[in-house]
Amino acid sequence: MELVPLRAFADNYIWLLHDGRSALVVDPGDSTPAEAALAELHLKLVGILVTHHHADHTGGVATLRQKTGATVFGPARESIPEPYRKLTEGERFELLGIGWQVIAVPGHTAGHIAYFAGGVSGAPLLFCGDTLFSGGCGRIFEGTPAQMLASLDKLAALPADTRVCCAHEYTMDNLRFAAAVECGNGELGAYTQRCAALRAKGQPTLPSSIATERAINPFLRSREAAVIHAIQQQDPSARGETAIFGALRAWKNRFQ
Ligand code: ZN
Ligand code: FE
């Protein structure tokens, strides 16, 4: 299985997974990059996985489905271009000979889902849309801090070697914030250097891994003493894990 990040818009990735003949794409906000890659690699598109309803993740769905006949999978609780297979928490399905598991991750949007595959060649795969980014997490548009924290806890509990396929290249901005939260984190410093070198060569920083994110991502570390201390310096009224997580997200929102 080959995993390829296709660039779209300013900083989106449309993930392409294929076995040399058949392919799936994740969150095609624009059909053009996906169509170009499918033609170049002589692939038949069999599935389109959608994580949430935002236009930068769904804009190419109708065109791709119409041109390829691929089956569309998406969150039952959101409205994306019909017809599609409506998925909910814990549901399993097979695509490309791989078993996929649906994880409900509300917060960024109310019905956001992620797709996890444990039994894939190489390491497990996670397509997490705009919920978990490398070094960060999505803005809480429709959910609550409590929901987002619970969603991130579910993802953090996945196997350490899981490949984390996020939908945006936000890593360097996120790591600048992460350094402001946790300047004493040595793994964060080393990871930042590796990512900066990749970006200097014009390469993606993704996929990340769950092990890396547990070590460097402040939004997966909001129960660490050093992180709590930094958050409470910003917002002394933040008490309890939900309020502390919410204060961390609010701090990121105003961080320049
Ligand atoms: Zn989004
Ligand atoms: Fe997005």
Q: Using only CA atoms, what is the Rg?
A: 18 Å
- Content of β-strand: 25-35%
Main sheet characteristics: 6 strands, mixed
Main-sheet strand order equals: 1-2-3-4-5-6
H/E topology pattern: EEEHEHHEEEEEEEEHEHHEHHH
Shape: globular
CATH class: Alpha Beta
Name the hetero compounds present.
Answer: zinc ion, fe (iii) ion
Q: Count all strands and give the number.
A: 14
Structural class comes to: alpha/beta
Per CATH, the superfamily is: Ribonuclease Z/Hydroxyacylglutathione hydrolase-like
Structure notes:
The chain is α/β, with parallel strands linked by helices. It has a single domain, classed as Ribonuclease Z/Hydroxyacylglutathione hydrolase-like (Metallo-beta-lactamase, Chain A). Helix content is 36%, strand content 25%. It contains 9 helices and 14 strands. The protein has helices spanning 31-41, 55-58, 61-68, 145-156, 171-181, 186-200, 210-216, 225-234, 241-254; strands spanning 2-8, 12-18, 22-26, 44-49, 71-75, 85-87, 92-95, 98-104, 113-117, 125-129, 132-133, 136-137, 163-166, 208-209. The strands form 3 sheets. The protein has a 6-stranded mixed β-sheet with strand order 1-2-3-4-5-6, covered by helices on one side. α1 links the parallel β3 (22-26) and β4. α5 packs antiparallel against α6 (186-200) and α8 crosses α9 (241-254). The longest helix is centred in the last third of the chain and has 15 residues, at 186-200. The radius of gyration is 18 Å and the shape is globular. The model has no long low-confidence stretch (mean pLDDT 98). Bound molecules: zinc ion (ZN) and fe (iii) ion. Fe (iii) ion (FE) binds at residues 54, 56-57, 130, 167-168.
